[in-house]
Design a protein that fits this description.
178 residues, alpha+beta, five-stranded antiparallel β-sheet, elongated
Length: 178
């Protein structure tokens, strides 16, 4: 079913992007459509603004007037999105929305820190000792304190200069000691 989901762009009234996102998330939850409409995104970028000689970093919308939605398009999901207050329509033809290409989605998600790395798993348990195979702690042994499958990372305790030091490494940076 995941394969049927694509990212679509919906056009909103200018300045209503966050309100549309909130309203649509509420609607999806109240109608139990989480399996059809999974993610709603208003892409932001950090920009430096200078006012009266003072620089400050602000978050600015990358696509003002647009919201991205990952969804499976069917009559019900189309109707739900189309009839959300603040939405003027989908980008594409009037009746058939056009999905973003995989490369466009990958670029946007990566810019938002949401890139979808293929989930890697590792066959280890808390308390086991592993060898770090790359990075600053290469060839050092560490004891696993925590496994984060969502992020694909391990928290290890390693000994550096006769002190126990906590480090976080990716699954790909360690090997199990047999």
């Amino acid at each position: 079913m995941e394969a049927d989901k694509k990212w679509y762009v919906i056009h909103t009234y200018s300045g209503y992007e966050n309100k549309v996102k909130t309203n649509l998330e509420r609607k999806v939850q109240s109608m139990g459509m989480e399996d059809v409409i999974s993610r709603i995104l208003v892409p932001l970028e950090e920009a430096t603004e200078e006012k009266d000689g003072v620089k400050k970093v602000v978050k600015r919308k990358i696509f003002p007037g647009y919201v991205l939605v990952e969804m499976e398009v069917n009559d019900k999901s189309w109707y739900v999105v189309r009839n959300t207050p603040g939405v003027t329509g989908f980008v594409g033809s009037a009746t058939k929305p056009v999905p973003l290409s995989d490369s466009e989605v990958e670029y946007i998600l990566k810019s938002q820190g949401l890139d979808q790395k293929p989930k890697q798993d590792i066959d280890v348990e808390v308390g086991e000792t592993v060898r770090i195979t790359s990075g600053a702690f290469e060839n050092i042994l560490g004891v696993i304190d925590e496994i984060n499958h969502e992020k694909g990372t391990l928290k290890l305790t390693v000994e550096v200069y006769n002190r126990e030091t906590p480090v976080e490494v990716e699954f790909s940076q360690v090997e199990k000691i047999l």
